[in-house]
Amino acid sequence: MWSQSRHRNVKLKPADYVLVVILLAVSLYLFANQRATYQPRYGVIYLNGKPYYRFYLNKNQIIKVDGPLGSSYVEVKDGRVRMLQSPCPLKLCMKQGWVDKPGSVIICVPNRIVIELKGKPRVDAVTY
Q1: Residue 2 confidence (pLDDT) above 60
Q2: Rounded CA gap, 56 and 13, in Å?
Q3: CA atoms within 13 Å, Cβ hemisphere of 70
Q4: Cα–Cα distance between 95 and 108 in angstroms, integer?
Q5: Is the pLDDT confidence value at 127 over 90?
Q6: What's the rounded Cα separation, in Å, for the pair 61 and 75?
Q7: CATH, domain 39-118, list 2.40.30.260, 3.10.310.70, 3.90.660.10, 2.60.320.10
Q8: What tens digit of pLDDT does each residue of 65-122 get?
Q9: How far apart are the first and last CA of the chain?
Q10: Which of 12, 49, 51, 68 has a CA positioned 20 to 30 A from the CA of residue 32?
């Protein structure tokens, strides 16, 4: 009829442990570097609610924007952007510092300037 199945105790060898550690290390490395693949490609400066200037983040530059209060200066450097100088009284737009993620915005309300970074959003989860 049916033959008896043979049960064996499987023991891991040292090479099996090394393989598990290598697979875990590769997985952690790929997970940690996932963020780098979703960097924004360009940004848009809006003045009075209308597109004023489109800039690319791979080119370092300083952009002058003439708003109602005077000239503001936007700095683009190393894939990031910030408000370098602005004539607004509280300087909140300058205090925000560098932004580099897609969907990030810098807003200068008194001078009516909005800087928005465009690009592919970061993936939260993947389902197969």
Answers
A1: no
A2: 53
A3: 5
A4: 11
A5: no
A6: 6
A7: 2.60.320.10
A8: 999 999 999 999 998 999 999 999 999 999 999 998 888 999 999 999 999 999 776 5
A9: 43
A10: 12
